[in-house]
Amino acid sequence: MTDLVVAQKEGLYCVPGQFHIDPWQPVDRAVITHAHADHARPGHGRYLAAAAGAAILKARLGNIHLETLAYGERIIHNGVTLSFHPAGHVLGSSQVRLEYRGEVWVASGDYKMEADPTCDAFEPLPCHTFITESTFGLPIYRWQPQRVILDEVNDWWRSNAAEGRASVLFCYALGKAQRILSGVDSTIGAIVCHGATEALNRTYRQCGIALPPTSGVSDMRGKPDFRGALVLAPPAAGGTPWMRRFGEYGDAFASGWMLLRGARRRRAIDRGFILSDHADWPGLMRAIKATGASRVIVTHGHVDIMVRWLQENGLQAEAFSTEYGMEESDNAAINESIAFKESHA
Ligand SMILES: [Zn+2]
Ligand SMILES: [Zn+2]
């Protein structure tokens, strides 16, 4: 039997189903795992996604032709049974389960294994073939529990506040920011967010996710006093005139890439908090094992190393070349902001 999913120039393609998964070029039918920009792109004819992610997808892509399914709900399209299951990555993120003539494939999109109060937990799905990301697919990537990291964030914020400074924390507007908000101690001071982040906070709240009170920077009247405040901003805001309003501040970056010392030094920030919405190496291994898949296809990240490691461990492993990880990846954002700082130096 030919493969259920193949890599085409437009994106991953389900052959009998005649639809694409997270395509990077415009197609007729796009099945979307989550709303990050490298997975959910504009310009497709029809979109199908998990209902839990619908509000975010619409916030990002505007008025698209979107149909949704509840997690676990099945539809049959051209003989392929399709369902979405939580991926634990950001609110509404899904794995796509495909079944055709007794053969089961799961495309994971992006995922993480640690429980996150802002989204449903990763659901291991038995399958024959598992398509996995490998953003942090190197044995050096091992995360500490998020509580440990969020306590470090609170300590850093508290000490800045005690000295009358703002604390500017760079983090992705979708997912990372809300995960941080759900775990910080809002009694330390006010929490202020960049407009892009604040818009997504509103969407998360509309979806029933509890977050502490926040204000959008541009919604604040008069001459706001940011001393003692926690400011969440997307990485691209770093080094721009937007930052001037905060007066004296300490800055930090929350990302899995902060495990790499050079990433923090190059960015010239005070602190790096190692917090990722992707699985670490043990998480990837655990997820792959839990599927029971005998065949694994690796998409974006440390593809070659993962493929070799899986082969050495008795699995049939190969790679799909994709265009994921271009916009969302922490590395891309860090490089972008370094380039920005250099060109404005
Ligand atoms: Zn993602
Ligand atoms: Zn991704």
Q: Characterize the main sheet.
A: 7 strands, mixed
Percent of residues in helices comes to 25-40%
Q: How many distinct helices?
A: 8
Q: List bound small molecules.
A: zinc ion
The number of E-state strands comes to 19
Gap from first CA to last CA: 58 Å
Strand order of the largest sheet: 7-8-9-10-11-18-19
Q: C-alpha Rg, in Å?
A: 20 Å
Arithmetic mean of pLDDT: 92
What structural class results from the helix and strand content? alpha/beta
Order of helices and strands: EEEEEHEEEEEEHEHEHEEEHEHEHEH
Percentage beta strand: 15-25%
Runs in which pLDDT lies below 50 for 5 or more consecutive residues are 327-345
Structural shape: globular
How would you describe the overall organization of this protein?
The chain is of the alpha/beta class. It is built from eight helices and 19 strands. The chain has helices at 54-61, 146-162, 176-183, 195-206, 261-267, 281-291, 303-312, 330-343; strands at 5-7, 12-14, 19-21, 29-31, 46-50, 66-69, 75-77, 80-86, 94-100, 103-107, 129-134, 166-170, 191-193, 215-216, 230-233, 249-254, 271-273, 295-301, 316-319. Mean pLDDT is 92; it is low at 327-345. Bound molecules: zinc ion (ZN) (2 copies). The site of one zinc ion has 6 residues, from loops.
